[in-house]
Fold this protein.
Amino acid sequence: MIKEKTTKEAKILIVDDQPANVTLIEKMLDIEGYINVIATTDPTQVESIYLAQNSDLVLLDLNMPVMDGYQVLAKIREVDPDYPPIIVLTAQIDRESRIKALELGARDFLAKPFDRVELMTRIRNMLEVRIMAKAMKNQNKILDAMVKERTKELNHTRLEVIRRLGRAAEYRDDVTGFHIIRMSRYSQILALAVGMSEADAEMLLNASPMHDIGKIGIPDKVLLKPGKLDAEEWKIMQTHVDIGVEILSGADSDLMNMAAEVAQNHHEKWDGSGYPRALAGEDIPLSGRVVAIADVFDALTTERPYKDAWSIDKSVEYLKEQRGKHFEPELVELFLGILPDILKIREQYAE
């Protein structure tokens, strides 16, 4: 039930070119306890007054000079698609006038001279409906904001789980976990440089940390061996791709599907000499080609159990040497073009 005080505080706008009519209605409203009443005898001022007041109800005459009530109705609808109830008060009681006013948006129609009790009752009823509608709209806004916030929290939690899942795989040979942070950010800005949409590049940012999730299944004696792997050990190491794909595939999620795609393809090489499927050129999905460069560059410039960190210059030379072999030539050029940004990320997330 709407409190009477709330109704009495509603904002009412009176539009009538006759001062006597305006004064009469103002007195009636004042007696009933309405405290936010504004009136004008100049219909050309309605737009500015209406917008400033944010009216809850309009009492409108039809027969006015310069700008009649029909034009005022049209103007209110133009400036506010969610316009309030409008009660037409007029001596024009013919059927055509009533229908025209109602078609233009009037909610009620009362002929002059009107009965005070009837007018006050209609005003009260209209305001109660208006206030209830505004309350429901505000409640819907609150609920919508709550849903958006909850969705944001759930999405953040999901991404955090994904990042930690990726770190779990890296933790065995990269205790800080900074490798997956750096290479995923390298991947994002390289993806943007090659023309990937912001949404897809962000998805790659969140999918790429799981590129080596299959390392979970690789024995320590192979994964942590301080030196070059022999042929048998290398075969075992390569199985981390299949393990990763098995872990990530089959999910009903674009993000997880991209993660599976990256896991399966980031060890493929442009010239077809990579693994596990020996894909070549553009047969390798773009996500895999991008992550390959980002992953290798960070691996080269980072100390690992089996190697010392390379200098930036030496790592850049390696990328250049591998154009058309390991890496797509265009992506190498783009990567070198954004190298200053790459190095900023590297410095920000240094070991």
